[in-house]
């Protein structure tokens, strides 16, 4: 479980100084992939003051399961994990969310959040109130279609985690996890490396098994640590390992 709020929220108006959030949205590096990517600058100027820029440190919780869903969030930077805990306290990581992903979609149906959203790295998200989406869906019919596409993408991601990362031989699951993590990597090739406990919670394996597999992949040159929480992948070696694993 991540640490509770407070989290850093950047207001569009602070201390009497106006910050043009419309310009922030217009110049955002993920805007064309984000929910409001199709809106022009005039439309952004009408809604900017209702969008909050939130920043989290690793381990902080954006929202918790069963919280009343009042907003969705676009991930601009970093990686979050969607996790749940059983009644016995066992934690399971359901999937990850990274740059351009839209999370908290269940709030659109006035439902509570289905899982805890916890920052794995430094994270920046935009908070979009549910009522704003309701209003814009009337004026911009294409927004509803975009939301449906993003909902389907989230379902596909969840299915992929279930079929590729929670079943099959342990080594295969670990290799598939590394391939998945590469999707959330930095431009310079670095990627966030989960702890062995987190890997266990993602892959349904023990700490000892996760440690053994990571050590083996380091010896094989597939994985190279940069520091405690970052690593680099040799993608060619990873693809060879996946291919050989599939032939066994």
TrEMBL record:
Record's GO cellular component terms: cytosol
UniProt keyword annotation of Transcription regulation present: yes
Pfam families (alphabetical): cNMP_binding, HTH_Crp_2
Protein known as: CRP-like cAMP-binding protein
GO molecular function: DNA binding; DNA-binding transcription factor activity
Domain HTH crp-type, chain residue ranges per copy: 168-236
InterPro entries registered for this protein in UniProt: cNMP-bd_dom (IPR000595), cNMP-bd_dom_sf (IPR018490), Env_Response_Regulators (IPR050397), HTH_CRP (IPR012318), RmlC-like_jellyroll (IPR014710), WH-like_DNA-bd_sf (IPR036388), WH_DNA-bd_sf (IPR036390)
CDD domains given in the database record: CAP_ED
Entry-linked PANTHER family: CRP FAMILY TRANSCRIPTIONAL REGULATORY PROTEIN (PTHR24567), FUMARATE AND NITRATE REDUCTION REGULATORY PROTEIN (PTHR24567:SF75)
Ranges for domain Cyclic nucleotide-binding: 35-154
The entry's keywords: DNA-binding, Transcription, Transcription regulation
